[in-house]
Amino acid sequence: MIYGYNQKLLRVNLSTGRISVENIPDDVVREYIGGRGFVAKYMFDEIPKGADPLGEGNKVFIAVGPLSAAFLPSSGKIEFGAKSPLTGGYGDSNMGGHLSAELKSAGYDMIIIEGIADKPKYLYIDNDRIEIRDASEYWGMGALDTEEVLKNELGEEFQIATIGPAAEKLLKFACVSHDFGRQAGRTGVGTVLGSKRLKAIAIRGNKDIKVFDPEGLLKKSKEMYDTIFSLPGFTEWAPYGTADITTWVNNVGALPTRNFKHGYFKPADNLTGRDIREKILVKDKGCFCCPIPCGKYSKVEKNGNEYYVEGPEYETIALCGSNLMLENIEDVAYVNYLFDNYGIDTMSGGGVVAFALECCEKGIITPEQVEYKELKFGDLDSIEYLIHKIANRHGIGEILAEGTKKAALVLGKGSERFAIQVKGQECSGYDPRNAAATILAYMTCDVGSHHNRAWAITYDVEVGRFEVKGKAEKVIWMQHVRPMLDTLTVCRFPWIELGFSLDDYPTVLNLVTGFNYTWEDLKRLSERVWNITRAFWAREVEDFGREYDWPPARFYEEPTIGGAVDGMHISRDTLEELLDRYYSLRGWDKNGIPTREKLEELGLSYVAESLGL
Amino acid sequence: MILGVVNEKCSGCRTCQALCSLQNLAVWNPKKAALKVIPRFPKPGEYEVGVCNQCGVCAKICPAEAIYRDRDVYLINEEECTGCGLCVEACPNNVMVMLGDMKAPFKCNGCGECISYCPREALYDVCGGDKK
Q1: Phi/psi of residue A176, each to 5°?
Q2: Which end of chain B has fewer surrounding CB within 10 Å, N or C?
């Protein structure tokens, strides 16, 4: 047994009802570590080529890491993955909360959900007792509401993940929800659970996890906490959470506004962490072992009702606030609640609504398609109308529930130029058109456009936004380091937001496991996983290549309007140059496909063979 | 050292629980901690922390008289404990644990480390001891 792990994988087949517990081999543990590493490895190996993302062949992979459940700052992340119904390629998404510690304490490092249930079910895990239970009475219920009902039924000690009605209706960007406001939001992992008719997963665990050097770990972890307590961000950032950055992003002209047409939104002065704190905050809410509770649990009143929601976080403020031109934090929190209870990713959700509003303005969505309502940016009623339509697949919602890329294909009339996505996934909340590393990060992110793998906007601003030199190198460095934190399943915020040193992570990994890894080793393992996910795309998407890394025309043809970078945009030539450099540094060919040499160098000959290289 | 709590300050992170099990039992198992964080969500959105206030109910009920007072705190003599679990059931704050292969219950021994590492300063020593 390897310290810090259970080395157990729980496999649940919803078609047959078969439940089995398998060993996770030593070499898989050492080479893939956990979390994202496990998800990518098992997804590549187990999903049959060409599987329909919503069919029998797709699987949902849920993994924790060696540092999950640890007394260690911010060790509460859990990774979900599946072949993405939104993009057709590799999909994963992680979330915080307390599910990770619970799964690990129940005795598992991973769950693999297979098959399709004939009726709505939920998965009940109480240590060794595993049951596939009837969930008919919860089907149709909101994601938040389902968690509340299950908690009342099973008890507070259970940690619960749910999907909402949007996932049941196979909206392509449905999320997995947990802890009343934490979401594995991206790539439609919730949709895949919906297609499998799995409404929820409830977990209780109370087993010990043995550690290689408990005394050394205790000492080191205490040092890490002490360091975090001493950093300025501990008192300056934590009270405001991710929304603390709104003003900065707006001031540098990168705040998505009006479907990414503008990069500056004056009323964003009312969409800051301070506005949350002063106007709507109920509670600072932290994930497992996190000293910096970025969760801002809030309450808003609308139409005589009270709505409780965790957030809005920065990404929701950007994509459901400025991008929809909502001017006050209460409205953004309300939209946040609507998406959360439907079980919809607020990032893709905000992106899709913005796209729809622009289509309405341009007459691409006809008045008839929206029941002759005049839908406008900045109008909460318009936005709410579209959210209900999309979540329920009513009317125009049937087209929009497929995401912006597919919706633009149906709607046509040039709408693909402002369908703000890469590979089918809607972009994160930073306008990338004046930031070379940021746009390259969106283009090359292995789940479609997303900031999680390489959050580069501050770096761009620091070293020169249109500077090309060094940008591909920096993006690749981030793409190795940040996903490794998702592999260890620790949160990146102590590092990103507080400036906490990365050096301690290999140290604690070694104290937990008895391994002897350095950051160089871990980056190498991370690079290997990055090549597996890229190979997954190449295997699953027939004509996959450079074209799939290309952003919408708005980013390289339309200058941004207003703000710090008024009138500017990156050029098409610069994007080509960035991609060439990136592929070359990655050891991929000019079409962005990993070469046999590179895969062999990484010990991935079997991946090269499966691609027919 | 006797633990006190200001529930309003708690952010529910359970650092205290993770630390408690590693500090005292040399394992990761937040469920074995001698304190509990109870969330109240979605409404009203609060946390309640159950802590041992060294009330001594456990000592009174112990048929083996294995629980004794040492200055401020009650401790368990594991050699005399029969593992009957009566004290766990009787604990008014539900903060004594006996799980899995434990031969004797575990209860708060007043080490005070959870006070030092609570990021929100929600825990304190009602006897007035300084934080670390």
Answers
A1: -105, 135
A2: C
Residue predicted with more confidence, A449 or A497: A449
Instruction: Kindly state the DSSP code that residue A306 receives in the 8-state scheme.
Output: E
Rounded to whole angstroms, the Cα distance separating A268 from A260 reads 14
Q: State the DSSP code for A265.
A: -
Domain A434-499+518-610 architecture: Orthogonal Bundle (1.10)
Pair of tokens at residue A188? 């439609």
Q: Which residue of B has its CA nearest to A222?
A: B117
Cβ pair A287:B13 closer than 8 A = yes
Cα–chain center distance at A107: 25
pLDDT digits (tens, 9 = 90+) for A318-369: 999 999 999 999 999 999 999 999 999 999 999 999 999 999 999 999 999 9
Mean pLDDT of all residues in A269-294:
98
Residue B132 clears pLDDT 80, i.e. is over it = no
Asked if A206's CB is within 8 angstroms of B11's CB, the reply is no
CATH fold for domain B3-125: Alpha-Beta Plaits (3.30.70)
pLDDT tens track for A176-185: 999 999 999 9
Do A336 and A262 contact (CB within 8 A), yes or no?
A: no
Per-residue pLDDT tens digits for A505-541: 999 999 999 999 999 999 999 999 999 999 999 999 9
Give B-chain residues touching A288 at CB under 8 angstroms. 13-14, 18, 30
A298: nearest CA partner in chain B: B45
Residue B47 to residue A282, Cβ atoms within 8 A: no
CA distance A326 to A301: 16
Which of B6, B9, B11 to probe by mutation at the A interface, max A CB count within 10 Å?
B11
What is the C-alpha separation between A537 and A44, in angstroms, rounded?
Answer: 10
Q: Rounded to an integer, what distance in angstroms lies between the CA atom of residue A114 and that of residue A132?
A: 12
Strand A198-204 relative to strand A121-126, pairing: parallel
> d(Cα B35, Cα A60) in Å, to the nearest integer?
35
- Among A299, A151, A291, CA closest to B10: A291
Contact B91, B58 (CB under 8 A): yes
Contact state of B11 with A289 under an 8 Å Cβ cutoff: no
Q: Is the separation of the CB atoms in B118 and A293 below 8 Å?
A: no
Non-local (6+) Cβ contacts of A458 within 8 A are none
Who's near A359: CB < 8 A, 6+ residues apart?
Answer: A365, A411, A415
Q: What is the CATH number of domain A237-425?
A: 1.10.569.10
Token pair recorded at residue A164? 């909402």
A161 three-class SS: strand
User: How far is Cα B16 from Cα B117, in angstroms, rounded to an integer?
Assistant: 7
Selecting from A71, A209, A215 the residue whose C-beta is nearest the C-beta of B19 gives A71
Cα separations (Å) of B117 from A231, B2, B10?
15, 16, 12
Q: Which fold has domain A8-204?
A: Aldehyde Ferredoxin Oxidoreductase;  A, domain 1 (3.60.9)
3-state SS track over A420-483: CEECCEECCCCCCCCCHHHHHHHHHCECECCCCCCCCHHHHHHHCCCCCCCHHHHHHHHHHHHH
**Min CA distance, A475 vs chain B (Å)?**
32
Per-domain boundaries in chain A? 8-204, 237-425, 434-499+518-610
Of A558, A547, A559, A536, give the one whose Cα is nearest residue A592. A547
Distance of alpha carbon A372 from alpha carbon A362, whole angstroms: 14
Domain ranges of chain B: 3-125
For chain B, the 3-state helix, strand and coil shares in percent, each to the nearest 5, are 25, 20, 55
Average pLDDT over residues A235-240: 94
**Rounded (10°) CA dihedral A417, A422, A425, A428:** -90
Q: How far apart are CA A432 and CA A442, in angstroms?
A: 8
